[in-house]
User: Which sequence fits this backbone?
């Protein structure tokens, strides 16, 4: 595996972690996370909207 592939995968991991943190922070403050963020972490935004946050 080349260095560029390893760096690319590592960057992808950090990007996903950032999306998870952003979604968790939004939920913690009773806001709906951005739809694109939810999609990147594998959550359907429409289904998520049906969950009661209160």
Assistant:
């Amino acid at each position: 595996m080349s260095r560029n592939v390893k760096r690319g995968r590592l960057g992808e991991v950090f990007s996903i972690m950032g999306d998870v943190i952003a979604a968790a922070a939004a939920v913690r403050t009773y806001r709906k996370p951005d739809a694109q963020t939810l999609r990147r972490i594998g959550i359907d935004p429409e289904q998520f909207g049906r969950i009661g946050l209160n």
